[in-house]
Amino acid sequence: MGTIDSTLADDLTARAAGPGSPALQDLVAALAAGALARDRGEADTFDAIALVRAARLGVFRVPTTEGGAGATLPQLYELVLDLAEADSNIPHILRNHFAFVEKALRARHLPQYQRWLQHVNDNELFGLGASELGTQNIGDGDGNTRLQPDGGAFRLSGTKYYSTGNLYFDHIIVNAKMPDGRFVGARVSVRQPGVDVRDDWDGIGQRQTASGTTVFSDVHVAADDVLVLDDDVKLPQQATFAQLYLTTIVAGILRRISKDAVRLVQQRERNYYHAVAPRPADDPLLQEAVGELQSAAFVAEAAVLNAAAVLGEAFDSAIAGEPNDPLFVEAALRSAKAKVVVDQLALAAGTRLFDVGGASAAKQAAQLDRHWRNIRTIASHNPGLYKARAIGNHAINGVPLPTAAFF
Length: 407
Description:
Elements: H1 22-33, H2 35-39, H3 45-54, H4 73-86, H5 89-106, H6 111-121, E1 126-129, E2 146-150, E3 153-160, E4 171-177, E5 183-189, E6 195-198, E7 213-221, E8 226-228, H7 240-267, H8 284-319, H9 325-357, H10 369-379, H11 384-397
Parallel strand pairs: 1-4
Antiparallel strand pairs: 2-3, 3-7, 4-5, 5-8, 6-7
Helix pairs in contact: 1-4, 4-7, 4-8, 5-7, 7-8, 7-9, 7-10, 8-9, 9-10, 9-11
């Protein structure tokens, strides 16, 4: 398969690429250059993740005093916007890692996270094993994966689905149940015996995220790599980070659409005989359509960064040891509102793009359909109508927002 040209250093001990740094700009540019080839299956996504590792992006939020880039939470979401504009698969792959780091930064007083954070500082990436199929309600936290005692250690068995990114990572935190009924998080290595990460994701979009199946068959787990979830750090709204992250990816795709629209009109040399102007760039209808797309991208970006600013304040309070509950609730509310509107704007924009491009925009070589497919796939992770209903019930009746998964 193809490779990616980049001036990024191959030395993984190099300083982490920080916000606004030339190294970060180089990374984003290199990922954008290979996006279409990866979507066609002509380039390997492992090459892209190798660039991510070379830039030490996994420690983007780790303090500079500990070898990280020291980025704020809003700066992380700005990075997600940039990465999503370049290739939406890449930030989606990294979502579970960044979510893990956020948890670790708040829970570094626990010995398990101290151990696991050292892996992060060693430029290793963490994935997640959480979702399962079955009759249980989606997101209720239950499942059939089991962790059985085995002498002074444990054995893990079960199957997880929607295992985004695990194929490219080093470690997986797996949600499992003990014989006594307690739920735990267990760390395993992606490459140890009994761990089978399958690249069987067949979604219409986000095709390179490896969001498929991970099977654990009698996998050895060290005792100090098990954390009882009742002992874990809790937040008022546990899932806001991940939900806003997905909406930010959608906003980044919308930014790409707005720029693709400009390029399409600029490159068109002829117009329809019954058009308002013979030259597409002078056609007020096309100008209006491009203006609408530019405006939609602006509003989407503003919405997610507004929510990220509040979430950043909330996370800062948690890291300081005094979580501000009202800030977390406000961040969850703003994130939910952003999703309801941004998903709709982006899906409409993915279709509107073809209005400005003409019939040639539908050619497979252009791959402009990937934008709509990717948006539709990401938005389906948590349908907006459920978010809108919860927002409305909160506004009308004062009913609190859900506090478990998806909020």
